[in-house]
Design brief:
By secondary structure, the chain is α/β, with parallel strands linked by helices. Helices cover 25% and strands 24% of the residues. It has five helices and eleven strands; from the N terminus they run H-H-E-E-H-E-E-H-E-H-E-E-E-E-E-E. A hairpin with a 6-residue loop joins strand 1 and strand 2. The longest helix has 21 residues. The termini are far apart.
Length: 261
Amino acid sequence: VSFAVEATQFGNFSNVAALSLNKHNFTSYTQASLLKLKVRNNYSITNGRSVQSDASYRSLISKSFPAWARGNDISLKLAAQTIPGIKEVKLFKNYSGIGTVGIILDTYEGSISQTLIDAVKAKLDQFCSVGDIVSAYSPKYVGITLQLTIKTTQQLNAAEKVKISNFITSYIKNYFSSTRIGQAIDFDSLFNQITGLSNKISQIGTTTGSNTADLINAYYSDVFGIYSPREIIKSSLSLLEDQKAILMEVESPITLRFQSV
């Protein structure tokens, strides 16, 4: 009489040699108490197979460690830049403590929504190394307001003043939108560029022989986006690597007054 046998565990370690299956717990027969029913397997059972061989499993383990370390600087930056709208990415190791990575983002629009930050964070989670905590942030903004005196080569009418005002305001806005994270601002150089582009502007500022602002105010934001009281800047602004200068989001960040020579 033949009988069926099934291993309780999957894999080749459940294979058995011939004559090794010689016990059973079947009792539904006559004289079961006398143990009259005997069993044995005349042949070995060798059709048990593991999903992977030991060599294959060891190979996969060896490959897993490089995979855990896949979140290198380049891969994280490239992952962040795949999100539409991202212009610049800066990476800081141990940004919020040991084992953390801070990704500072900038956009073409000059502002970053929480929705965009969340989208970048979800993408970064696919590439970060095991044990690293990767987070995305907007830069720590430094808001700027300017008060400028525009000296002209001739007396301007109202329409000409509006045209010059629009030109200067647009130029300064474009300048700040093109700056990079951590980039220092040289205001004197900026004003020299502006005066060189219009033959109707003789000077910016009231200091003889140089182009300077009447007043430059800087407002520093913290990690929560809360701005500090104003700080008066002279001619240049140095920034930390995770800061970015922007025009302050107020009704008139640039105030102009005209003065003919």
